[in-house]
Amino acid sequence: MIFYSNAKINIGLNVIERLHNGYHTIETVFYPINWADAIEILDKDDDKNTDFNLTIEGLAIEGNVNDNLIYKAYRLIKEQYPQLPPLNVILYKTIPMGAGLGGGSSNAAFFINAVNSIFDLNIPLSNRLIIASQLGADCAFFIENKPVFASGIGNIFSNINLNLSAYYIAVVYPKVHSNTKEAYQLVKPQKAKYNLKDVIENCPVSEWKNFLKNDFEEGIFKKHAAIAELKEKIYQNNAIYASMSGSGSAVYGIFIKKPELSFVKEYNYKLIEPKIVC
How many percent of the chain have pLDDT more than 70? Predict the structure, then answer.
């Protein structure tokens, strides 16, 4: 069976406080977008001396396959639900890594949901959220995969009234890998000037640029000027709002009319078109 795990963007991102354990409290909105990896789950019919095999195609992922969040998700589920059978999994990777789009977290969360459904494991939603939360702060978001206001260390979710389906959203990866740990080292935690949730729910998208900010941008833009230039070009090409997503390096723009994207043709990008609801 093949299923698709989509990316997300961050709308606004306030880094509020550095905690004693090295983590940071943040405020942001996670919004799912239609840029997806494909994951194929197959019965394991080979004689390799392992109960799980992960093959990665498409974009290369550095490091040991056993460090992949899908593999870790399999192990966590297998501990609690030993009836989960041996599997061959093929990950067709298109979402860039180090982009702030949550691709790895999405892969793991959608895998959890998929095996739960395919093999009738009957894992309650509450337990799927717990399993996902052990894999990363934003991983649990993809279990339900709907817009949320995220606080805490990015792991406390509340509902938010937000629907961007009437807009074009262009997401551009400028071929720069952004390291999250390094991004946090470059940021200065501070209390936000504006209530992020109130702005998003009550202000037109065209006014967001006057209130919302991504606190990672200042440090990342100084280190990688090309990312700052990309954001400016997106505004120059008629975006009504543009921002880096998460700790970068992907930058997205929200447009009323379909943008002409020849200025990013050398990059990896995705244009999400409006959804027409009949």
Answer: 97
Q: What is the pLDDT of residue 177?
A: 87
Q: Find the domain containing 206 and state its range.
A: 163-272
* 255 in the same domain as 172: yes
In a domain, 277, yes or no: no
In sequence order, the β-bridge partners of residue 29 are 11, 149
181 given a catalytic annotation: no
Those residues with Cβ within 8 angstroms of residue 95's Cβ, 6 or more apart along the chain or in another chain: 7, 35, 36, 37, 59, 101, 103, 106
Is 138 an annotated catalytic residue? yes
Instruction: Provide the whole-model pTM.
Output: 0.95
Among 43, 129, 125, CA closest to 88: 43
Verify that 193 and 249 share a domain, yes or no. yes
Helix residue ranges per DSSP H, the chain: 69-80, 103-118, 125-133, 141-144, 180-186, 196-202, 217-223, 225-236
Is the Cβ–Cβ distance between 201 and 149 less than 8 Å?
A: no
The CA distance from 151 to 53, in Å, is 35
Alpha-carbon gap, residue 236 to 251, rounded angstroms: 14
**Shared-domain flag, residues 128 and 246:** no
Select which of 72, 138, 213, 215 is catalytic.
138
Spans of the chain, pLDDT less than 70:
46-49, 276-278
Give the number of C-alpha atoms closer than 13 A to the C-alpha of residue 202, restricted to the C-beta side. Answer: 7
Burial 155-174 (b: 16+ CB within 10 A, else e): bebeebebebeebbbbbbbb
